[in-house]
């Protein structure tokens, strides 16, 4: 199950960023996951809970936004959202020369953190 190694890499990357931001704890991670990313959402959610144990992210929630498959036709220029099991032909003109422009994503969209009170007080006085 490669989702566990993905979850471990995710936890490592988020932990490093959260520590740089002065986080005391990570409460949520928002991830964009394309339908062609080759990752099983349910397995990643399970693996995330395992990978976060004993880390800054323990108890946090992983929110996954599923990103659909979008192609652009080289022949007619149509941009189409298509089901993954339909093939890659252009639904507008039937051409087979299409480019995938969305659907392979595996990216951290945002992270929610808690910071110690003295850090948030300093930030509030700077605002």
Give the SSE layout.
Layout (H helix, E strand, L loop, with lengths): L2 H18 L4 E10 L6 H11 L9 E7 L1 E5 L5 E4 L15 E5 L3 E9 L2 H10 L1
Parallel strand pairs: 1-2
Antiparallel strand pairs: 1-6, 3-4, 3-5
Q: How widely separated are the two ends?
A: 45 Å
Shape: elongated
Instruction: Give the amount of beta strand, in percent.
Output: 25-35%
Mean pLDDT: 91
Strand order of the largest sheet: 2-1-6
Q: Helix and strand string, N-terminal first? A: HEHEEEEEH
Low-confidence stretches: 120-127
The percentage helix is: 25-40%
The Rg value, from CA coordinates, equals: 19 Å
Backbone structural class? alpha+beta
Number of helices: 3
Secondary structure: number of strands? 6
Please describe the biggest sheet, giving its number of strands, its sense, and whether it closes into a barrel: 3 strands, mixed
Structure keywords:
127 residues, alpha+beta, disordered C terminus, 3 helices, single chain, 6 strands, three-stranded antiparallel sheet, three-stranded mixed sheet, 31% helix
Description of the molecule:
- It is a single chain.
- This protein is of the alpha+beta class and 127 residues long.
- It has helices at residues 3-20, 41-51, 117-126; strands at residues 25-34, 61-67, 69-73, 79-82, 98-102, 106-114.
- It has a three-stranded mixed β-sheet.
- Residues 120-127 have low confidence and may be disordered.
